[in-house]
Specification:
Elements (H helix, E strand, L loop, with lengths): L2 H5 L13 E9 L3 E13 L6 E14 L4 E14 L10 H7 L26 E2 L2 E2 L5 H4 L1 E21 L2 E20 L13 E25 L3 E26 L11 E25 L3 E12 L8 E12 L4 H4 L4 E15 L11 E8 L2 E8 L10 E14 L4 E13 L2 E5 L8 E5 L2 E17 L2 E18 L7 E5 L2 E5 L7 E4 L2 E4 L3 H6 L11 E3 L14 E4 L5 E11 L2 E11 L2 E4 L2 H4 L48 E3 L2 E12 L2 H6 L4 E14 L20 E2 L8 E9 L1
């Protein structure tokens, strides 16, 4: 369901995508040298007004064989992207403000100005606690955002067959990214929940240089036709440096010139950081008659992000497999194509943390002493020289099964993993000068399964095949340091809690059991202080006869019970059709938008969800008993995180429909071509869900413990693409 269908949002704010796209490639060569060149172009208009993305990219690959022993290759990629990235995500962005806007709120009034800017307009009442709430349209029409990104990538390799069965390969790659971001906020515009502010301009640059070098020596030998041994040893080194700068200017006299020199520069900052990673790898694979297979590997990784004594992590792995279908007792069973069982163990490491968490980083801040402004130096983070790798060990058991000449294939896996030395931000005593620090704390368990089934249902002139997969994962925190104290992260009245015995990132708050239906109920049950008839009925979780912060409890988690996907492919006489469905069952969403759209907090002419129509009006008109009366001021649990904001995240999505037609071969050959294909591709066609928001997969935070918090997340668009593929 489109956002404007839910909220009657004007089409100027939410629209359909325009997505011109083409790809042109050419390849050729001879026995010694082959090449490929491709040119691509994409021009996309986002679903949010004036959000655009334009990219052109060029890619070139060349392979050359010097002789029977030496080969090389070079890949070059260049791209340039122009974006207009207007803010999304959070309470003061285009999406969340469009959700809250009165559906009859005019973009412009008769005078030609935005409705909320005209003092004489009846629409100039959209406010919260006396502060003007910005019009979502002004965020795109009264501002200018430009972002240009240039990326160049070069990768090369050289292979040398030193002797028979022994190959040396060395490769190197470089990636250079340069980004310039300009933002200008027009004079006289309102900025968020503050008052009127002068025009403001921001200028930011980013330059990133990343290189990686790898060298491997691979020995591959078959003995007596039955034994195959492959041994590999390797080394790699990687480094990245990033330089950032930003400047801000204000008090522009008008909107004629947007460069910083037209205003008063009031802030500037430059920042540089780098990181490096060195790795050693050894691996051996053995196979006997393709029936018994074994593999063992060890890698050592050294990261600059950890303390001097803990930079190295060591990660072993190994696997065993038995292809039972090759055994004599099954060799003559014609309908069995393949049966294989697998068992593996592998250790991996995580170093995805800030670059300087193990050392103290200095910051600078001005201060006044004796009437003079001086530049002060302070430590901006709590240094933990004992930071080390977060390590995960995973055990996996799997079965591969194929019958009827491969027409039915099944793959099943179950796994268990344990992560030690979790890297998390934890609260520390305020006397340290910091509120939290990154440290290794605790253990986490994951267990789950994944099943895949592929079938060739019909295989003649008309073809029909099906692919189905289902998977699930459960995680549980086992330890959180010495005292196992829970870790809370608060986001605008809602808490994400990570605690022992629970999944990571649980929603934590009050339980709302409907509505206080009458004055009589006020004296029958413990209630939130200041509650009236029609307000939410909060559960006395600890049964101490009062409602306070001690009644908060666990409200759910974003992790679904299971997820699945189903693809059906059809083809007949040049026509092709593919339909992909995806689904998720269970798991909860923290609908942060409900703070305003279900509770009435903030008042004014805000929009609200349609379900609010059944709210409690009086004892004679109690509604459905689930929706409390609106409250403009947060005097009850309305403005505090509760189960009233938590919703079922289950859904079924028509993810993709692709239709194609290949022109008849004889007709194409008359044109001196190889193939011509017409196609139409539909992406994100429809989602079936009870979620009040516009997308049950819309999360403002894409990683960490806050996944599942929907606070004005950018909409996943529906896209329709028509295309033509021509092969020469």
């Amino acid at each position: 369901m489109h956002l404007r269908q839910l909220f009657m949002v004007p089409e100027e704010q939410m629209g359909l995508l325009s997505l011109p796209h083409f790809q042109l490639s050419a390849s050729g060569g001879n026995e010694k040298t082959q090449f490929m060149v491709s040119l691509g172009y994409l021009d996309s208009e986002g679903v949010v007004d004036r959000n655009t993305y334009e990219r052109i990219n060029l890619r070139s690959n060349i392979k050359h064989k010097f002789n029977d022993k030496v080969r090389m290759g070079v890949n070059i990629g260049l791209s340039r992207a122009n974006e207009a990235p207007y803010g999304t995500g959070g309470k003061s962005d285009v999406v969340s403000l469009a959700l809250q806007s009165d559906p009859f709120f005019p973009l412009y009034v008769e005078t030609g100005s935005l409705g909320f800017k005209d003092p004489a307009s009846i629409w100039n009442t959209f406010s919260k606690y006396g502060f003007q709430l910005w019009h979502p349209y002004s965020l795109t029409r009264e501002a200018t955002a430009k972002k240009v990104t240039n990326i160049s990538t070069v990768t090369s390799y050289l292979e040398w067959d030193v002797i028979k069965d022994l190959t040396l390969k060395t490769s190197a790659s470089s990636n250079i990214e340069n980004t310039v971001h300009n933002f200008y906020w027009n004079a006289g515009q309102n900025w968020g929940y503050s008052g009127w502010v002068p025009a403001q301009a921001d200028f930011k640059t980013l330059q990133s240089n990343n290189w990686i070098s790898e060298t491997t020596l691979n020995y591959n030998k078959t003995f007596n036709e039955n034994h195959n041994l492959s041994v590999l040893a390797g080394y790699s080194a990687q480094e990245q440096r990033t330089d950032l700068s930003s400047m801000t200017a204000g008090n522009f006299p008008n909107d004629l010139v947007h460069t910083l020199n037209a205003g008063v520069v009031n802030a500037g900052n430059t920042f540089s950081e780098d990181w490096s990673l060195v790795s050693y790898l050894a691996r051996a694979n053995y196979s006997y008659k393709g029936k018994y297979l074994a593999s063992a590997a060890i890698r050592a990784d050294g990261s600059s992000r950890f303390g001097a004594n803990n930079r190295w992590g060591y990660f072993p792995s190994g696997s065993l497999a038995w292809r039972i279908s090759e055994e004599g007792f099954l060799k003559d069973v014609s309908w069995i194509s393949n049966i294989k069982v697998r068992l593996s163990y592998g250790a991996t490491g995580n170093n995805s943390i800030p670059n300087y968490g193990s050392i103290g980083v200095l910051g600078y801040s001005p201060y006044v002493s004796s009437g003079t402004v001086n530049q002060g130096i302070y430590t901006s983070n709590f240094a933990d020289k004992n930071l080390k790798w977060e390590k995960t060990g995973q055990t996996n058991f799997g079965v591969d099964f194929s019958v009827f000449n491969g027409r039915v294939k099944f793959t099943g896996d179950i796994y268990y993993s344990k992560t030690k030395d979790l890297l998390l931000n934890v609260p520390i005593p305020i006397l340290s000068g910091f509120s939290s620090t990154l440290t290794n704390i605790g253990e986490l368990e994951n267990r789950g399964f994944e099943l895949n089934l592929s079938t060739q249902n019909i295989d003649n002139e008309f073809k029909w095949s099906t692919d189905f997969n289902i998977f699930a994962n459960r995680n549980k925190v086992v330890k959180l340091g010495v005292n196992d104290a829970p870790i809370d992260i608060n986001v605008s009245s809602m808490t994400s809690r990570t605690a022992v015995g629970k999944p990571i990132g649980m929603y934590y708050g009050y339980v709302v059991d409907g509505v206080i239906m009458s004055q009589a109920e006020l004296s029958e049950y413990p209630v939130w202080p200041g509650s009236e008839a029609g307000d939410p009925k909060v559960r006395d979780v600890n049964k101490d006869g009062k409602i306070d912060s001690n009644d908060r409890t666990y409200l759910g988690n974003y992790q679904p019970n299971f997820q699945w996907g189903l693809t059906n492919n059809f083809s007949y006489s040049g026509f092709e059709l593919s339909v992909l469905l995806r689904g998720s069952q269970g798991g909860e969403i923290l609908n942060h938008n409900a703070r305003y759209l279900k509770s009435g907090v903030g008042g004014g002419n805000r929009n609200m969800y349609a379900v609010v129509n059944n709210y409690w009006k009086s004892e004679a008109e109690p509604g459905n008993g689930k929706i409390p009366k609106p409250r403009m001021l947060p005097t009850t649990v309305h403005d505090f995180g509760s189960s009233y904001w938590v919703e079922d995240g289950s859904f079924v999505r028509i993810q993709n429909i692709r239709m194609g037609y290949n022109l008849p071969k004889k007709l194409v050959e008359k044109m001196k071509l190889s193939n011509i294909k017409l196609y139409v591709n539909l992406e994100n066609v429809h989602v079936f869900s009870d979620y009040l928001g516009y997308d049950p997969e819309g999360s403002t935070y894409q990683s960490g413990v806050l996944v599942g918090f929907d606070y004005g997340a950018y909409p996943n668009p529906f896209t329709a693409t028509a295309g033509l593929n021509i092969s020469f």
